[in-house]
Structure formats: C-alpha cells, structure tokens
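Reference record
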Amino acid sequence: MADSSPGQREWRVTGMDCGSCAAKVRGAVERLPGVADVDVALMAERLRLTLDESQTSPDTVEKAVRGVGFGIAPKGARPEKPKGGFVLPDGAFPTAAEAPDPEGGPAEDPEGPQEAPAPSWHQSAKGRLVIVTGALLAAAWASRIAFPADIAHWAFILATLLGLVPVARRAFAMTRARMPFTIEMLMTIAAGGALVIGAAEEAALVVFLFAVGELLEGVAAGKARDSIRALSKLVPKTARLEVGGRTREVPAGRLQVGQVVQVRPGDRVPCDGEVIEGTSGVDESPVTGESVPSLKEPGAEVFAGSINAEALLRVRVTKAAEDNTIARIVRLVEEAESARAPTERFIDRFSRVYMPAVVGAALLVAVVPPLAFGQAWVDWVYRALALLLIGCPCALVISVPASITSALSTGARNGLLMKGGAVIEAAARTTHVAFDKTGTLTHGKPRVTDVTVLRGSEDDLMAVAAGVESGASHPLALAISAEADRRGVPAASATGGRALPGKGTEASIDGATVCVGSPRLADERGALDDDLRRRVATMEAEGKTVVIVLRENVPLGLIALRDEPRADAAVAVAQLRTLGISSVMLTGDNPRTAQAIAGGLGIDHRAELMPEDKVAAIRGLTSEARVMMIGDGINDAPALAAAHVGVAMGSGTDVALETADAAILRNRVTDVAGKIRLARATMSNIRQNIAIALGLKAVFLVTTVLGITGLWIAILADTGATVLVTLNALRLLFYRPSEPSEPSETTGQAGQDTAESRSLHANATT
C-alpha cells in the first residue's frame, strides 16, 4: 500500500450508501488509540487516517470497520464485500461479483483493485433482503386469508423477526462501538415495540419498507459512484507498444516514460504523451469536454483517454499511468470530497444533536400524556415508536455531499475542475472576476509584428534579442525566439541571463550587458528619449506590446508584438455580466495595449502591474467583494492564492491541475461563466435537498404526534427522504454548465454590476 506520509494509512471501504454510513465508519475507528486525522469519503469509498502502530495495528482498524458491518481492504487490494449488517449468510444466492477470495481475505493484485461487474439489484445483499422480507410479508397476508386470525398474527410476528435480525445485529454492533443513536437501533426498537403493543402487521410492513429504502439508497449511491468511475474507464486497458521494431499489446498501466506506442484510428490514446510521427485529428472531449477535434502533429501533446480519429500516430510516453491526466482528474475529484463545504460541516454538527433530541422527544411523547393526562399507553407508545423512525438524519447528512459529488463529476466531464465543496460554495458567491491578460483573455502566443532598428541591422537586433531570451519561458520571449528562427537568424551566445520581474530579461553578450525589456525599464535606465517615446506610443495605440533592446543602456531597437484576444473572450465577459458579475483585467502590459484589448472586450482594466501589484489589486477587491481570479497557474500564483477562488487555465498541465482552487482544462474563457453557473446550480440543489429532508421530517413529526400517520408512513419519511435527496442530487449529472440558463439564474446576484460594483473597482485601483 502506498502511503503519502509516514503513519498515514488508506483503505477502501465497501457497503457505504449514505452519510450516516460514513459517520459509522468514522465513529468505529476514531475511538481507537493512536488513530488521528480520520477522513472517510463516502463516494470514493475511502478511509484514510494517521495511525500510530505502536498503539493500534492496521488489523485492529480493519476489525473495527468490519465489526460495524462494512467491507474493508487496503488500498490497491481487491475490494471486499461487507461481511455483516444486511448481508445474508454466505451461500445464499451467491454471485460472482461477491465471491470471497479463496484465501479468505482480500488479495493483492499487481494491476490494482479489479472492479467486478455490478450485480443486479436482486443479486445484491440488500436486494435479497427485500425479496426475503417481501415474501415473508406476502405469506403472512396470505395466511390471514387461509387461516384463523391468531395464526395470521403469528405469521406477521415471524415475518417481522426474520426481517429484523440483520438490522438488530448491526444495531447492537454499533452500540458496542459506542454509537447507540443509529437508524438500525431506532428500527429495532420501533419494530420490536410494535410487536409488544400488538401491531405485528404494521411492524412487518415497516421492516419491508425499510429494506426497500435501504436498497434504493444503495442503487442511488452506486449511480453517483459510477459517474466518477466512468472517468477512469476512459483509458484503454491495453496499449500497442513498439519493441524491437515490432508491436505487441501490453497493459496500459505498465507503460513507462520514454516508451513508444502506436495509436490506430478509432483507438483511445493509452497514455499522456508526445506525438513523434503522424498527423491526425484527436477528439479530446472525454478529457476536456471540447467537442472540436484537435489537430495533432509531431511535437504535440496528447492526453490519455482522448480518441484518435483519422490516422496512425506514434506517441512517446511522457507520464506514468498513475500520473496521467485522467488519473489526476479522478484523484482530484475523489480528494475534493474531503474538502467539505461550510454548509456540510454545519449539517454534520446539527445532525449530531438532531437524533438524540428526537429520541428524547419520543420518550416524552410515550410517557407524558399517559402519566399527566391519563391517556392510553398503547396509543402514545405507538406514536412515540413512529416518532423514533423520523429521528434518523440520513437524508439531511447526505443532502450536501451527494450534490457536491455530482457537481464535481459533471465539472470533470466538462473540463471544469473544482477542489471540493468549499470551492463550489465560494464560486457560487462570486461577485467579481479578475482576469490575467496573457494566456487567459488572449491566446498567450504573441507574434512579432514590427522590428524597428535604431543601430545596426534587423538580423543583428533579432540575434541579440533572441540570445537574451533564449532561456526564458515568458510568451513574449518565446515569440521573439520563434521570429528569429523564422528569419534564420541564430541567437547570440549569452551568459548570466536573469529575469527582471515585470520588466524584462537581461544577459551578458560579448562582455556587455544587454536588456530586452519594457519601455518602463528603458525609462528607468534613462534610455527613453522623446522620439523613442513617440514611436512606442504609436505602436501601443494599435494594441501592440513593445519591448526595447538595450546594450549598456543604449537602445538598439524596438520589437513590437501582438497577442490576439481569444475568440470567446468578449462572449465570456458578456455572460458574466448577465450573471450579475463584474469583470476586470489585470495585466503587466502598458496602458495603451491594455486599453486596446479591454476596450474590444468591454471590460475594465488595470495596466503596468507587477506581480505584487496584482496581489494588492485582488486584496483590494476581496475586502468588499467575493473575487474569483483567472490566470495561467504559473506567473499568477500569488494573485490566485489571494483571491477567494483561484482558477488556473490550462489543458491538463500539472500547474493548472494542482496549484489553484480550480482549473479550466479546455482553455475556453466562457467556461468561467460555466463554472459559476455549475456552482450556483449546486448550491440551489443543496438548498432543495435540505428543504426536502427537513420539510418531510417536520411534516411527519407533527402528523405522527397528532396520531394522523403511523409507523409505515414514518419509515417512508426517513428512507423516502434519503432516496429523494439522492435522486435530486443526481440531476446535477445531467446539468450543462456551458449552456446559459434562464434569467432566473441571476437571482440573488443580479444588480451587482451597478454603482456599488464600480465603487469596489475604484477602491481596488486606488
């Protein structure tokens, strides 16, 4: 098992279907000595904790989890089916998917955990319990027709007891683990109490409905998990590896960096790699959500899971299987489940008080009316038992994580990554979006448009400039080097190159210091005379970025470059405005170029910003607004960190996936609005779920106390609410964030782009 830090252990836990299940696993291990930092991810089926093995062994942890009815296997081992709880004795209705390991436990598999085909509902443990309890209930009803009432009464008692055995078994296991307030314990008390007061038929019906509700919860949770697992299945299982001039099929998971694979037309790319031969259109929609195929030529990057559409490609592997784009996306989505939203943390705290409070209320309902007012004991005990069934907070606990998980999965399928519920909640509250210019609002691939020589020749000027920029990675530096290559001009030999943050680059050429930098740098060094200033102003008015080449602070010439805005940048700003969100462009470029770009996009701007100035601008906005910063994930890292939500643009790069709070994989500016729409839809879905969970509980709590509804309605209020909440959350799997919704989507946000917004922007610019 690969652990990321000393003392950290990780397992896969099977059998969890709702938030209460995750809480049970957490409670079972938290009480063990030497256990800390317990993290249980419901949808990822993950248990992670820090373990002091001198106090508690891993086997003890596994025993504790199995003791409360869940299956557990170390990370990388074959998943284990739950041994307790609702699983009927081994041998009954065996299925291949649930076959135990012949050695009696989970077996290590060199290829990692193997996912067996999911059994049909009637083959699962919970499905079998529904069939058995339903058959017993039907038989009891049939006996009432064919036999005297006394015999039918005993048939209902038998049906109740047989169906209640696995429920009671788990209830007492939870009690031994110091978790008495569980739905299983409430069910056991309610059904057992109903038998005592003579309501055997209703008790049997309640046990059956409970089993149905548990089955539906399991099916719904499985659907949510499948949406995440579908991402990992995008990568093919095998690859055509070139070995000694021949090709052979090998497991894709065993590919090593540097190996060469062939990808035929129609095949999925098995790895992240670089095309070394062939030209073809590649459909990257499974990875980035971009529907238009991308042309791939030698030197181009390809992603695992994308589809080769036209011609044979030879691809050199650049990343191991566990670190390819799909694997990182899946890992980020699963890890994001641990970054819980503030709303989810509040619901957890509330639910810990809610269940004991309802149990206390049920006790009062059972004893106060008979003792204080002489009411019938049977009637009020019955109402108290029904009230107990309303006391489980399953629906409430699952209301937030189910929505978050669905949103994360939908976002990943559409190239929109968000690292957890906290990021989604913050994104939904966004009122201002700050954009970097280069590589964000523009393509980030400027080209040289003008070369003005003051001393020497154009070739000499380009050779010196390319020499200084040869070691730099800034888009302007790359454009200058590319122009020199296009002209066939070799770069001058330079030494001691260093960046001048926000100003340019300098190096030593033939013993002289040469700078390639902004007009501001030339002005600081006393090299910007009136004539040069006019030349610069003329070019900048055309939206061009001008750099000046200086040798020993003497200008050799000017190089003008232009970076065109992305085609969808203006549409993105308009969509944000429709959402009631103000936008501002932050750039280190000169004011005239910034104005030319911003004017065409209809966006406010601030120019000539050093990296620290961008941070100051973001902090100025965040003091009074909720700010999302969009940047390239590298140069803008400080500003991304300063914003409430930092979003990195980038097609699957390490930085784009790992440095910011969120990432946009397909480099479309309109996806910024899509990300906010998805976040708002998620928070709306969460509010609906909470209303469903609490609303149904409140209604049936009142009707139960008044004697209007009974036990079977109470169990529907519990399991029914959980199923409704989960199904409502699953609706997010079909949400299309790229499609602007009706004007109602701006509710609570419209009107932000008003005088108040403009005043906030003014505050940031002062």
Remarks:
- The first strand starts at residue 8 and ends at 14.
